[in-house]
Amino acid sequence: MSNPPTPSATDQQLVAQVLGGDTAAFGQLMQRTQGLVTQMVSKMIRHPADRPDVGQDVYVKVFKNLVGFKFQAKFSTWVGQITYNTCLMYLEKKQLVLVDPAEPEPDSAVEEGRRAPPPLVAGTDYDPETALFGQNLADILSTAIEQLPPLYRTLIALYHQQELSYEEIAQITSLPGGTVKNYLFRARKLLKQHLLATYQRDDL
């Protein structure tokens, strides 16, 4: 009988236990990656009713392909790749667009010198009035993010909420690093336009 997985076990140890027949170890791997998978699925799949099936499909694929995973990348990054590709298949099946096809292809060379995007919302080390404004801004941003194309929503979530690097996001999405930077810049530009439009309406 195999030993139960421990919270301190590494991903590699848990994978070995799963391959040895320990299903409890797979449950622990799911717990470690559930936040990433749930957030990616919620950003790429607009219809809430479809998200559980897509999420389940992700972990079915993870389990089936676990024997071929050789830790060339972090386990969470590999799961992210499977999640992204599973969501892509869903979008293609539903004939939904990942990003506006009217937009020109990003110029990676132009983006190489662009600085990293600042945080979407500033910290909360303010007086109560400023903190309240920050909360209102966060609510407005959340609404605005949901209006973006699926790819933009996903990139913002991976970079600003999951705090992944450009390289990790590029691995997950199979996009060049310069393209990731470019799309993030465009997403933030659209969010800024939404915020300005919202405040202008409020001032009328």
UniProtKB/TrEMBL annotation:
<feature type="domain" description="RNA polymerase sigma-70 region 2">
    <location>
        <begin position="29"/>
        <end position="95"/>
    </location>
</feature>
<keyword id="KW-0804">Transcription</keyword>
<comment type="similarity">
    <text>Belongs to the sigma-70 factor family. ECF subfamily.</text>
</comment>
<dbReference type="InterPro" id="IPR007627">
    <property type="entry name" value="RNA_pol_sigma70_r2"/>
</dbReference>
<keyword id="KW-0731">Sigma factor</keyword>
<dbReference type="InterPro" id="IPR036388">
    <property type="entry name" value="WH-like_DNA-bd_sf"/>
</dbReference>
<protein>
    <submittedName>
        <fullName>RNA polymerase sigma factor</fullName>
    </submittedName>
</protein>
<dbReference type="InterPro" id="IPR014284">
    <property type="entry name" value="RNA_pol_sigma-70_dom"/>
</dbReference>
<dbReference type="Pfam" id="PF08281">
    <property type="entry name" value="Sigma70_r4_2"/>
</dbReference>
<feature type="domain" description="RNA polymerase sigma factor 70 region 4 type 2">
    <location>
        <begin position="140"/>
        <end position="191"/>
    </location>
</feature>
<keyword id="KW-0805">Transcription regulation</keyword>
<dbReference type="InterPro" id="IPR013249">
    <property type="entry name" value="RNA_pol_sigma70_r4_t2"/>
</dbReference>
<dbReference type="InterPro" id="IPR013325">
    <property type="entry name" value="RNA_pol_sigma_r2"/>
</dbReference>
<dbReference type="Pfam" id="PF04542">
    <property type="entry name" value="Sigma70_r2"/>
</dbReference>
<dbReference type="InterPro" id="IPR013324">
    <property type="entry name" value="RNA_pol_sigma_r3/r4-like"/>
</dbReference>
<dbReference type="InterPro" id="IPR039425">
    <property type="entry name" value="RNA_pol_sigma-70-like"/>
</dbReference>
